[in-house]
Amino acid sequence: MSRKKMQESDKKKWPGKKAGKRGHGRGRGTAGEDHKPVAAGDRRPPRPGAGASPWENIAPKGGKASQRSHAGKTAQQSYTGKVSAHPDGFGFVDVEGREKGFFLPHEEMNGLMHGDIVEVRPVRKRGRESAEVVRIVEHASTVLVGQYLVQGKIAVVQPRSRNMPQAILIAHGDAGTASDGDWVRIEIKRDAGHVRGKVQEVLGDNLSPSRLIDLIVAEQQLEVDFPPAVIAEANAFADQVLESDIKGRKDLRHIPFVTIDGEDARDFDDAVCVLPRGEGFEAWVSIADVSHYVRPHSALDKEALARSNSFYFPDRVIPMLPEKLSNGLCSLNPHLPRLGMTVRMRFDANGTRRSIHVYESVIHSQARLTYTQASAWLEERDEAAVEKHELREMLDDAARLFRKLEKKRKQRGALDLDMPEVRALLQDDVVVDIVASERNIAQRLIEEMMLAANTAVAEYMDAHECALLYRIHPAPERQAIETLNEFLAPFGLFVKLPKIKEKDSQVRPGDVQLVLEQSEGKPFAHVLHRLVLRSMQQAKYTPVNVGHFGLAYDSYAHFTSPIRRYADLIVHRRLKALIRGEDPNRVQPVGTLADIGLQTSTQERKQQRGEWDTQAMLAALFHSKDVGKTMPARISGLTKRRIFFEIEPTMAEAGLAVDDLPGAFELDETGHRLAARRGGSAYHLGDRLDVVIDSTDPVRGQINVRLAGEQD
């Protein structure tokens, strides 16, 4: 799962000056996309040495490598990328198109910070490929969160991030009201290699869940409040849909639409209905028509682009749009007329889509169902869960179509990764439990309906030669699959790879999925799912279509969540112009799509980083009560310096320093194991063993363990 922060690149007046659901309470765990689960390409990156590079990639400045000379040396190719600093003082620079980042030794890291954009020239030092810094192209964010510490007459801030090992000096007059031990947000200034900071906000020393999440919000510089101009535009709309808004739209208020979401969902982008048609089905997917209210160049539009998506945390939501729209006019609340963009799809008896029609519509959701309610009817025939007989019939028809679409999905070879979602449960600002949730039939049904609508819209726009913002997931690098095959070889399995000389030498998703199915029930299956995930590239938004590997689609876009994703709103605008017979470039110029794709992808990584950091922090806080306890765990990652464990009851990540093991060990990257230099002792990826929780650091999201049976 990826930890990524990309460079803010959009410096134009439009589509935006600054960079900035996931389905709130939605499932996660397959290669399905949209606002229910998250695609394989969207997950956290691997630990170093765990099968692929852990460092994020970023495009070369200007999109091409430059030719430069440095320090009087012969001009040679140089590259631009982002610095990923390591706590031990070295770093990497990652460049798009290169699987491995350039190594930066300690001396090259002088004056650099994690997140800097730099131009580097490859060199060879100490027998390995390294890089020399030519220049700093862009400094990293000047704001960070850390702990204010008084050391005699000197005050410093120790950053929260492990990628920022250096303490920041705070002058006496720049400390504000901070006291020793407080967590603070500071603004840093860099002058001739010296870094100093000034306290901007005191966050306190309270380690409650809400205060920990405050640290994430402050660190990511998320704007909680909307600018006055944005609020004014939102408040100018009527509280209800006007008759003048309905005029000219297809009236679908007679169609028995329902919304099906998690219990804690706060906004409803999508409503569905499935009806029998002959031996086949007619499926309707209606999506909130956000583009009716959020117009290009408006204050609402600029702010929505800056945020690019809603940010969801266990105790709060920071929405992309003001509440007047996100929870009101644009939310498909039951028993109210709502404006929509509706896709009608006809499927034959085998689940093959035969036609698609798109309408500007007005709908009337007949019920707000939860996944639990819909599943209670579909799996247990509990009539009390869904009171209306006609809605129960509709759900039965939807379930019949779902099973056919699911069969089609398997035939395509889409990936199905067994990675359950883990959630922290809060009560009165206390973490009472951490649970892994499994997807029920209702969640999977809605996922398939959203996938069907998304790919139908992408193919419809392709067929009409209308440029759009695709959601792409490139095929994994060949080398990553070869590494995966090295792990599989002892088990007699391998992912089929076409010959390099063949026209299409990329791995096929169906061949990866086949190995996942062959491993089902075997002891190494859990590890394999993680390694497959780590071999995947990132999904992103771009106007250049390369297909979606995880979903096994040739053409795919995000259309179904415009309340919480700006990329979907862009697809809506151009699609609406297309069906009106207008020029889509007049409402959303094709020339803006690349910049919007980069901005929305950047913000999505920021959102994911916030989610993962929050999960790690709350897990560490929850396990603080377990210090000294022995717990079952499984090895989930190996590096030269650390072993990473998944604590089985909560799936929380814990770490153990290799130096703390008895004896000396070497990393066998091919065998995914740490082997003793003397003797037969070894630790393999996936091994189950008991660990003792030694300490926790909730602010940094760390759980430190030792092997059970070791002496203190």
Describe the structure.
This protein has 712 residues and is of the alpha+beta class. The chain has 15 helices and 32 strands.
Approximate strand percentage: 25-35%
Q: Can you count the beta strands?
A: 32
Number of DSSP helical runs: 15
Overall 3D shape: globular
Query: Regions with pLDDT < 50 over 5+ consecutive residues?
Result: 1-32, 35-74
Q: What is Rg?
A: 26 Å
Mean pLDDT: 85
Question: What structural category do the secondary elements indicate?
Answer: alpha+beta
Compile the SSE list and pairings:
Layout: E1 66-68, E2 76-85, E3 91-94, E4 102-104, H1 106-109, E5 117-125, E6 128-138, E7 143-151, E8 154-159, E9 168-170, E10 183-191, E11 194-204, H2 209-219, H3 228-235, H4 243-246, E12 250-251, E13 259-261, E14 270-277, E15 280-288, H5 299-307, E16 311-313, E17 316-318, H6 323-329, E18 337-347, E19 353-364, E20 368-370, H7 371-380, H8 389-412, E21 421-427, E22 430-437, H9 441-463, E23 470-472, H10 478-488, H11 509-518, H12 525-535, E24 540-542, H13 566-580, H14 584-587, H15 593-622, E25 630-638, E26 642-647, E27 652-657, E28 665-668, E29 673-676, E30 682-684, E31 688-697, E32 702-707
Helix pairs in contact: 2-15, 8-9, 10-12
